Amino acid sequence: MVAIAVVVVLVVLQLTAFRPRPIEVEGVRASRGLVEDAVTNSQAGTVKARLRARVGAERAGRVATIARREGARVRRGEIMILLDASTAQNQLDVAQRDLDAAGAGVEVARATATLARQQHERNVRLFADQLISQGEMDQSRSRFEAAQAELQGAEARQERARSARRQAQNELDHLRVLAPFDGVVGDLMVELGESVVPGQPVLEVVSLDSLYVSAPLDEMDIGRVREGLPARVTLDPYRGQIWRGVVTLVSPVVNDTREQNRTLEVEVEMIPDPAAPTPKPGTSADVEIVLDRHDDVLRVPTNAVIEGRRVLVAEKGQAVQREVTTGLRNWDWTEVRSGVSEGAWVITSLEKQGVKNGARVKVRPAAADSAAQRTEARTP
C-alpha cells in the first residue's frame, strides 16, 4: 500500500508540479481576406521621366540672363536663358526702318499709279470723242503702265524688307532658350557671361507629370508578367507611401550580362497621386506586380506554413499539426483551401525551441496581424 501511495504521489507530481510549463508562442487566427500573387524586382529600380530634355542654344553668343535656375518650374515656351542680343536688336531696328521706308515708297507708288489710271481713263473717253490725238493717247497709256510697274516694284521692295525684318526677328528669337514642355529645371550647365556655341546644352528640363519606374525582374518570372498588370511602387525616401502603377513595357530581351543573375527589364507607369509627395527622377524604387488576387478567402500567415503543406494550430493548450491545401501565396499571406477552420489559432513562432506537434503551448496574439493592414493598404 505504501508503494502504491508513492507511485500515485509521483504520478500526481509529474502531472502538476513537475509537468513542463507551457511554451509561450505567438499566433494568428485564420481569417478571411485578400491574398495576392505578386512578383517584385530582383534589384533596385529607378524612377525616370518620360519627358527629359537637354536644351541647347540655337545661336552662338554670350549668356546675358538666366531666368530660371535649378528646381524652378517652367511652362512650355517660357524663356529660361537669354543670350546677348545687342547686335541682333540693332539689325532688327535697321530692318524695321527699311520696312517702314519701303512701306512709304509703296504708298507713293500707289498714289502715282492711281493718278495715272484716272488720267488714262479720262483720255480714253476723250480719244473716243476724238478730242485728243493718237500720240496723246499713247503717252497716257505709257505713263499708266509705268506707274503700275513702279507700284509693283515698290511692293516687291516692301516684301523684301518684310522678309529681312522677319529674318532679323528670327535671329533675335533664337538668342532665347525656351522651355520645350512644362516641367522643372533639373540641371543648369552655364553661368552668366559664358560663351556658348550652337547646339551646346545649357540646361536640362524634366517633366514630373509622366514618371515611370524601370526595374529588373528575375528571369524566372518572365512567363507570368505582361503589360497592363497592376503594380505598386514604393520609394526609399518615402517609407510607407505607396503609388499605384501599371506595367507599360516588358523588355523583349533578357539581360545576360551576368550569366548567373539574368534579369528582364520592366517599366511601371506611376499614376499621379495629388495627396502624395512628387517623386524625384533618379530615386531608387521597388515595384510589386500583382499577377493574381483572390478576395475573401481563408488565409494564414505565410511564415506559419511548414514546407507549404502543414501548420501547427493551438487546441486546448496543445500544438496540433494539420495538413493543409494551399492556394495563392505571397510574403505575408497564404490561402488555405482545406485543413484549417476559420478562427483557429495558427502558431507563427515556429522557430522557438520545443514548438512541435503535441507540445504544450500558450498563445498570445502575434504582431503579424499588422501584415493584414499592410496588405490591405497596398491593394490598388
First-last Cα distance: 74 Å
State Rg: 43 Å
Count of domains: 3
- Which percent band covers the strand fraction? 35-45%
In terms of structural class, how would the helical and strand content be classed? alpha+beta
Overview of this protein structure:
This protein is an alpha+beta fold. The protein folds into 3 domains: 23-48 and 210-378, Efflux pump adaptor protein, beta barrel domain (Elongation Factor Tu (Ef-tu), domain 3, Beta Barrel); 56-82 and 180-206, Beta Barrel (OB fold (Dihydrolipoamide Acetyltransferase, E2P)); 86-173, Helix Hairpins (Orthogonal Bundle). Helices cover 28% and strands 37% of the residues. The chain has helices spanning 2-15, 86-128, 134-173, 369-378, and strands spanning 23-29, 31-40, 45-49, 52-56, 61-66, 73-74, 79-83, 176-178, 183-188, 195-196, 201-206, 211-218, 230-235, 242-255, 263-270, 284-301, 310-315, 318-323, 325-329, 333-338, 345-347, 361-365. The protein has a 6-stranded antiparallel barrel. It has a 5-stranded mixed beta sheet with strand order 18-17-21-1-22, with no helix packed on it. The protein has a 4-stranded antiparallel beta sheet with strand order 4-11-9-6, with no helix packed on it. A hairpin with a 6-residue loop joins strand 13 (230-235) and strand 14 (242-255). The protein is rod-shaped, with a radius of gyration of 43 Å.
